Amino acid sequence: MAATPMFRRVLLKLSGESLMGEQPYGIDLATVERMCEDIKAVHDLGVQVCLVVGGGNIFRGVSVAAAGIERASADYMGMLATVMNALALQSVLERCGLHTRVQSAIPMTSVCEPYIRRRAARHMEKGRIVVFAAGTGNPFFTTDTAAALRAVEMGCDVLLKGTQVDGVYSADPKKVADAERYEELSFQDVLVRDLRVMDTSAVALARDNGIPIAVFSIHSPGAFASAVCGTGRFTIIR
């Protein structure tokens, strides 16, 4: 792995499912600890890091809405799940020796800070990890869109999405043995081919603001630092 990072400030998008490890539900502490060690390795390179985390390991608003709960209410319930995940990440990151702040798009001042853009930027300038929770704070928007929005607001150089596989494929490689893996794609390729790396509004937001997206495997130790340094296996979208 190269020791020189290519980016000064990065946003890492983590799905809620990535926190489950091999469990069917909830948070696997060993998995979260390994992820936090990877985040620390990037922080130790002098890179400013912020995160957006999903909530699918606890609650999936879309699924519950399909079962009969009003969609907006189900989405708000999902946002609360992301706050739970953010607090778990904060606890483990601080055990790793990293100063961390959680900012929620839905104010809940008893447990975390409200999202304030300038305050978040100042935290990062001081070397703190900022975890953004509760998505955009609005129903009908995914945490992928929240990740793209926060990356733009924070002036990030790249949005990194940690996934279950080591890049973008033409189909799910776990289901399609001969799925093609891409090293590099344009934003238009992703949208036209409907590759479902992130939802279309997130891809369009990143495209319109010139923020590249790097997709790598969150389950490969050291892959986050490798992607930040421009080495290792990942797909770059720009």
Provide structural commentary.
The protein has helices at residues 29-43, 61-67, 71-95, 117-125, 143-153, 187-192, 200-208, 223-228; strands at 9-14, 48-53, 100-104, 113-114, 129-133, 158-163, 168-169, 181-182, 184-185, 213-217, 235-237. By secondary structure, it is an alpha/beta fold. The strands form two sheets. Strands 4-3-5-2-1-6-10-11-9 form a nine-stranded mixed sheet, sandwiched between helices. It is globular. It starts with 8 loop residues before the first strand and ends with a strand. The relative contact order is 0.17. The mean pLDDT is 95.
Number of helices: 8
What gap, in angstroms, lies between the N and C termini? 22 Å
Helix fraction, binned, reads 25-40%
Total domain units: 1
Assembly context of the chains: single chain
Poorly predicted runs: none
Report strand order across the widest sheet.
4-3-5-2-1-6-10-11-9
Shape: globular
User: Cα-atom Rg, whole angstroms?
Assistant: 17 Å
CATH top level is Alpha Beta
Percent of residues in beta strands: 15-25%
What is the structural class?
alpha/beta
CATH-defined topology: Carbamate kinase
Under CATH, the homologous superfamily reads Acetylglutamate kinase-like
**Total number of strands:** 11
What's the order of the H and E elements?
A: EHEHHEEHEHEEEEHHEHE
User: Major sheet, described briefly?
Assistant: 9 strands, mixed
